[in-house]
Amino acid sequence: MRHHTILAIVLSFSASTVVAQPAKQGHPLLPPYPGSTIGMDLVANAFNEFDIPAGPTKDGKFTKTVHVEGKYTAFGYGAPPGRSQLEVFRNYEGALKAAGFSTIYACKGNPECGSQVGAGHLYTIPNGDEARYLVTKLTRPEGDIYVALHVMPLETRFVIVETKPMDTGLVKISADALNKDIGSVGHVAVYDILFDTGSADIKPESAAAVTEIARLLTQSPKLSLHVVGHTDNVGALAANLDLSRRRAQAVVTALTTTHKVAATRLRADGVGPLAPVASNDTDAGRAKNRRVELVKQ
Predict the structure, then answer these.
(1) Domain with 107 in it
(2) Residue 223 predicted with pLDDT over 50
(3) pTM for this prediction
(4) How many CB atoms lie within 10 A of CB 45?
């Protein structure tokens, strides 16, 4: 299978540049370009998070980032004498492509990359007019791998994040927990009711969450709820408003048909992206904004 080629990426450089791996290699996935010298010390975390720059800079920040969590590795190789930044970049770009990685974003210097902005272990992007920056991703059943590399005049920096599918089912919502939040603040966000992108059909794995909402209403016979759908800000406002309303209605329909909750106790509404709880500038923020909220009438 394609992902089995990851560790063989060392063999994907052109024959004229293949040499024995040096003792201080930052990661099995990415050996140093032949002739490279010692660069940034290795940083390795069993689990960490990183906002990978995935768009040009503007007004002192990156216009797009990809939030990833998983095994985190950062390191650097000093520039090999007599080799251009472009040559080093093309070798790594080709090796990653050959191993099945797809490009998320690439740029060169300013103005392509924008003005300089700090990016953690990747250093300041872009670092010079000839600096090259690349973000790639390999999709695997056991977890995706993201590679970001920044080829600078004196060094090439790398950040590799190996994600792992999150173990699900470890924390479940309960009628008691829902009741506690509604009693204390009058509303509660439910993230366990899932939909495919652009769809208002409740996914089967949402059944347990819907059942707990029904239990809440059974245990509190005088409670009536607004069921409010929320989206992120991706797409047109009108479409998101409609989608959020239809998703809320789908929850109400499930409660009134499958669980026989009286329709008079529920009202479906949708506010689209108009009530965010996090920034829509990152994947993590958009995920928090996509939710169903129960509001006490």
Answers:
(1) 2-162
(2) yes
(3) 0.54
(4) 13
As given in the structure block, the two tokens for residue 175 are 């009628």
Angstrom distances, CA of residue 28 to CA of 9, 11, 24 = 9, 12, 11
Q: List C-alpha distances in Å: 61 to 68, 148, 234.
A: 18, 17, 20
Q: Are residues 182 and 229 in the same domain?
A: yes
What is the total residue count of the chain?
A: 297
Quickly state the pLDDT bin for 165 (edges 50, 70, 90): low
Q: Which amino acid is present at 29?
A: L
CA distances, 102 to each of 120, 184, 220 (Å): 23, 47, 51
**Structure tokens given for 288:** 């928090």
Rounded to an integer, the average pLDDT of 162-181 is 74
DSSP per-residue letters across 20-43: PPPSS-SBTTBPPPTT-EE-SPPE
Give the three-class secondary structure for 225: strand
| Domain harbouring 223, CATH code | 3.30.1330.60
Kindly state the tokens that stand for 219: 């245990």
Same domain, 157 and 20: yes
* Cβ atoms of 159 and 76 closer than 8 Å: no
> At residue 82, what is the residue type?
G
167 is a domain residue: no
> Is-contact 106 133, C-beta < 8 A?
yes
Judgement on whether residues 96 and 242 belong to the same structural domain of the protein = no
Would you say 77 and 156 are in contact if contact means Cβ atoms under 8 Å apart? yes
